[in-house]
Amino acid sequence: MAGFRDNLGRVVQYCENVQDCRRVQQLAYFGEHFDAAKCRGMCDVCRQGAVYQLEDVTESAKALARLVQVCVCVTPHCTLSRFQCRCARVLSLQMHHLRALMLHTHFTFLFSLPL
User: Fold this and answer.
1) pLDDT over 70 (residue 4)
2) Predicted structure pTM score
3) Distance, CA of 65 to CA of 52 (rounded, Å)
4) What is residue 21's DSSP assignment?
5) What percent of the chain shows pLDDT beyond 90?
6) 40 and 63 in contact (C-beta within 8 Å)?
7) What pLDDT shows up at residue 84?
8) Sequence-separated (6 or more) residues with CB below 8 Å from residue 91
9) Measured between alpha carbons, how far is 28 from 50 in angstroms, rounded to an integer?
10) What are phi and psi of 19, to 5 degrees?
11) The predicted structure's pLDDT at residue 113
């Protein structure tokens, strides 16, 4: 089952990766090298041409984890939308950033569960 989980994790990572050339990713999986400059916009990622900035969200993630612990203790039956609104106010995050962070945390949590 660990192999299945690893493969599923790779598929999710491939789908969520909007920064690296698809051909580079596909050929790297098979142990081959491909120069992304040779793609010339043939894949969706290179065609989009977006530039991304890495952002360290460690402190926000820690604060979110602490908030989850507090909310579960105080309000065990809190709805997701109410929880998101509370988190957004407390962490001063925009709602779409919070949803992305929670989605990523949810997938990471699912992959860490024993089957």
Assistant:
1) yes
2) 0.46
3) 26
4) -
5) 22
6) no
7) 66
8) 60, 63, 64, 67, 98
9) 21
10) -115, -35
11) 43
Contact status, residue 36 vs residue 21, Cβ threshold 8 Å: yes
Instruction: Answer left, alpha or beta for residue 104, where phi above 0 means left and psi between -120 and 50 means alpha.
Output: alpha
| CA pair distance 33, 76, nearest whole angstrom | 50
Radius of gyration of the chain (CA): 18
The owner of tokens 């988190």 is 87
Contact 83, 71 (CB under 8 A): yes
Helices 95-112, 2-16: crossing angle, 10 deg rounding: 160
Length of the chain: 115
Report which residue type is found at 58.
T
| Distance between CA atoms of residues 57 and 54, nearest Å | 9
Whether the CA torsion 28, 42, 14, 16 is positive or negative: it is positive
Residue pair 3/11 in contact (Cβ under 8 Å)? The answer is no
Report pLDDT digits (tens) over 15-70: 888 889 999 999 998 999 999 999 999 999 999 988 777 888 888 888 878 777 76
Q: What is the largest CA-CA distance in the chain?
A: 55
